[in-house]
Amino acid sequence: MDDWKHGKLYAMVVCPVYQLPTRASQIYQQAGARSVCIITYTHLAVFVRYAKASSTTKSMELVHEVFKTVESMNPSKDAHIYWQAVNRKSLDFDGKIAAIWKEEKQASVESIQISRDEALGFLASERERIMRFTKEQAIKEVLKASNLDNKIWAIHSVVDNDLIGLG
Asked: Which residue ranges make up each domain of the chain?
């Protein structure tokens, strides 16, 4: 997780909130043990907006405090412990952050809902498209999805390569 730090004290990984484990994961344990801060795009948006509301220097101070918080944690796989520490440090840093935090959290919730609705709409249209297939089209799609031709080719390509021969 930290091979790319190249001697730096800290590193940050930024992810969409919906891709992060919510209960337990070794990524949280590794984050604390290796001084790699994991944050969401929402956290990053809060840091950027705080820089505009306060100053770049104050925002960098906040980021540094979050780094130190992650570094000082007892390594644990518990997501709740990790996020409680990161979120609490961010919110306690300056009173201005609470309002920004609330707005960005709401934007994140709305964004996730929009993404879900789009994905579900796409899948519904795919289901409708598939339901209109003829029998021949359906068979063709199943064969394509199962990748049988490539599997048959792979089996035919297996030969004795003489690696275990004696001479």
From this structure: 3-128
- The residues facing 12 across adjacent strands are 37
Find out whether 41 and 17 touch, Cβ atoms under 8 Å: yes
C-alpha triplet 24, 26, 28: angle, nearest 5°: 75
Joined tokens for residue 5: 């730090």
Q: Tens digits of per-residue pLDDT, 22-79?
A: 999 999 999 989 999 999 999 999 999 999 999 999 999 999 999 999 999 998 999 9
**pTM of the model as a whole:** 0.77
The Cα 41–Cα 57 span in angstroms is 20
DSSP-assigned letters across all residues of 72-91: HSPP--BHHHHHHHHHHHHH
Among 44, 93, 35, 102, which Cα is nearest to 67's? 35
Distance (Å, whole) CA 19 – CA 111? 14
DSSP 3-state assignment of 11? strand
Q: Which helix (H) or strand (E) holds 37?
A: strand 36-40
Give the CA-trace dihedral at 87, 27, 40, 53, to 10 degrees.
50
The angle that helices 41-53 and 79-93 make with each other, rounded to 10 degrees, is 10
Whether residue 36 contacts residue 1, with contact meaning beta carbons closer than 8 Å, is answered with yes
- Closest by CA position to 110, among listed 20, 42, 54: 42
